[in-house]
Every structure is written in C-alpha cells, then in structure tokens.
Amino acid sequence: MFALPPFSLDAASVQDSLKVLNFLGIFAFSLSGALLAVRRRLDLFGVVVLGCVTAVGGGSIRDALTGTVPPIYLRDETYLWVAIIAALVGFAFGTRLERFERTLSLFDTLGLALFAVSGALGGLALNFGPLGVIFVGTLSGVGGGILRDVLVGAVPEVLYRNNEVYATAAAAGALVVYLLHPHLPSGWVQLAGVSVVVLLRWLSKRGKLRIPVRRLRDEGEESR
C-alpha cells in the first residue's frame, strides 16, 4: 500500500524554511500597512505603527486565543525588526513599490497561508473543535489587516475585498489542517493547508473563484 514518507516540521531544515517564509509574510503584511499609511498621509511614526500592527496583529490574536504569552514577536524580536524595516521601506519607496503589486501579493498570500495554518495548529494543540480551529486560523491570517483598516477608519478590507477569496481561503486552509491532522504526518498536514490557501488565492486572482455578494434592489435603482 502506498504511504507518504515521513515528513515532520520538527526537522531543523523544514523549520528554517518555514521561518524564512514567515518573515517574508511579516515583511509583506507590514509593507501593505505602510503603503496604506503613506496613502493616508500619516507621518513616519504612523507608518511604522500601522506597518507593525498589520504584520503582528494576526499573530497576537492567535497567541491570545491559544494562551501563548508573551506573544512570539516579543520572545523573538526579529519579527518586530523585520516589520519595522518593511515599514521604513514602505515610507521611503512607497510610490515605486506599488509597481510591484504582483510580487507583494504573492508574499501576502504566503503570509496569509502560513499564519492561518499556524493558528489552526495552535487551536489543535488546545483540543479545539472544528469551528474553534477555523476561527483561530482565520483570525491569525486576517487579524492584522482588520486592525490596520480599523486604525485608519476604513471598513476592514477582508469583509469585501472586491469579491476576492481571502478570509475564506484562510478558513479553508485551517479546515484542511483540522481534517487531515489525524491521518497524515504533521509536515504533510501543514503543507496541505498552505497549498489550499495559495490555490484558492490563485484561482481568485485569475477570476475563476469569487465570493457572491447580495445586491439589494434599492442599490440598483439608486445607481440609475
């Protein structure tokens, strides 16, 4: 019978790879917050604060819900330094960086996937049920963006995002982790969760997958 080879994230090489991707996700999240701050004409301090909140907000929510104190970014300040550097880059080169929207979107997707999976694993470690695992995983992925938008007085982008699959992709990745963890080695479970998030985001970006929006009849009449 075919069996998957052992693949565990306890291996140092796999851990190192995930940590690098995690830093890329933090960098991308912080940069997205910084670029929004630049558009809103915040000063340097505001840009750095908004960038850092976007980068570590989701992880903070995850750690709070799973009882991990202090949060990981306070135990390893490298995460904060990466967020601060990204925010400074956004402040200095904001106009030029907007040309690389596709690259930033890729890093953002990787960050979303990794944080969603790590949040789901935190929920599993505390024996949460399926809804708890999905809730923690989704908030871990999108929490930073929600805090970012609230701070600048905007409706959180993850609630509409032009019908794109974003928060739903994070929820799907967390669900996959929950469903597969009793049957597959840890590394394969996490790889599957990340892959599902990336795939759904890719399909959404290509216009092949959309979240339906309910249009009220009055809206159509008012737009005429």
From TrEMBL:
<dbReference type="GO" id="GO:0005886">
    <property type="term" value="C:plasma membrane"/>
</dbReference>
<feature type="transmembrane region" description="Helical">
    <location>
        <begin position="20"/>
        <end position="37"/>
    </location>
</feature>
<feature type="transmembrane region" description="Helical">
    <location>
        <begin position="163"/>
        <end position="181"/>
    </location>
</feature>
<dbReference type="Pfam" id="PF03458">
    <property type="entry name" value="Gly_transporter"/>
</dbReference>
<feature type="transmembrane region" description="Helical">
    <location>
        <begin position="132"/>
        <end position="151"/>
    </location>
</feature>
<keyword id="KW-1003">Cell membrane</keyword>
<feature type="transmembrane region" description="Helical">
    <location>
        <begin position="78"/>
        <end position="94"/>
    </location>
</feature>
<comment type="similarity">
    <text>Belongs to the UPF0126 family.</text>
</comment>
<keyword id="KW-0812">Transmembrane</keyword>
<feature type="domain" description="Glycine transporter">
    <location>
        <begin position="20"/>
        <end position="93"/>
    </location>
</feature>
<feature type="domain" description="Glycine transporter">
    <location>
        <begin position="106"/>
        <end position="181"/>
    </location>
</feature>
<feature type="transmembrane region" description="Helical">
    <location>
        <begin position="106"/>
        <end position="126"/>
    </location>
</feature>
<keyword id="KW-1133">Transmembrane helix</keyword>
<feature type="transmembrane region" description="Helical">
    <location>
        <begin position="44"/>
        <end position="62"/>
    </location>
</feature>
<protein>
    <submittedName>
        <fullName>Putative membrane protein YeiH</fullName>
    </submittedName>
</protein>
<feature type="transmembrane region" description="Helical">
    <location>
        <begin position="187"/>
        <end position="204"/>
    </location>
</feature>
<keyword id="KW-0472">Membrane</keyword>
<dbReference type="InterPro" id="IPR005115">
    <property type="entry name" value="Gly_transporter"/>
</dbReference>
